[in-house]
Specification:
CATH topology: Nucleotidyltransferase, domain 5
CATH class: Alpha Beta
Oligomer: single chain
Strand content: 15-25%
Strand order of the largest sheet: 3-2-1-4-5
Number of domains: 1
């Protein structure tokens, strides 16, 4: 079961990060298109004193969305999985109507996340 997680929506439009720790949920809204994902994630996790370990998960948006945004977010998420031994999952943007805690919890309850991140969906 996924308890504590970082959720990444970085698809080139309305980009956000979400963080659930215990029952608390925090959202970071990207202000500029050129914000660097890795440094934003690092500062976001550090500001909430998060320790990444095997009990932590990252959920990343697989699209549809911009090619660059999806590739960057998948690469960052995969890097976290490998370096910190965390669990990695993906979701489709169409399965999350609005980026908020209750919709994300429904995404998890309905088991709309995938363990295999093989087929991202790009917009042409």
């Amino acid at each position: 079961m996924i308890k504590n997680f970082l959720i990444i929506k970085f698809i080139g439009k309305d980009d956000k990060l979400g963080l659930r720790i215990n029952k608390d949920f925090f959202v970071y809204n990207f202000q500029k298109k050129n914000e660097r994902l890795v440094s934003v994630i690092y500062k976001f996790l550090k500001s909430h004193s998060i320790k990444l370990d095997k009990n932590f998960s990252v959920i990343v948006n697989q699209g549809p969305g911009s090619f660059s945004g999806i590739r960057i977010s998948l690469a960052v998420a995969k890097g976290l999985e490998i370096s910190k031994n965390i669990r990695l999952y993906g979701y489709k943007n169409t399965d999350l109507s609005e980026f908020n805690q209750s919709n994300i919890e429904n995404l998890l309850k309905k088991n709309l996340i995938e363990k295999k991140l093989i087929k991202p969906i790009y917009l042409s």
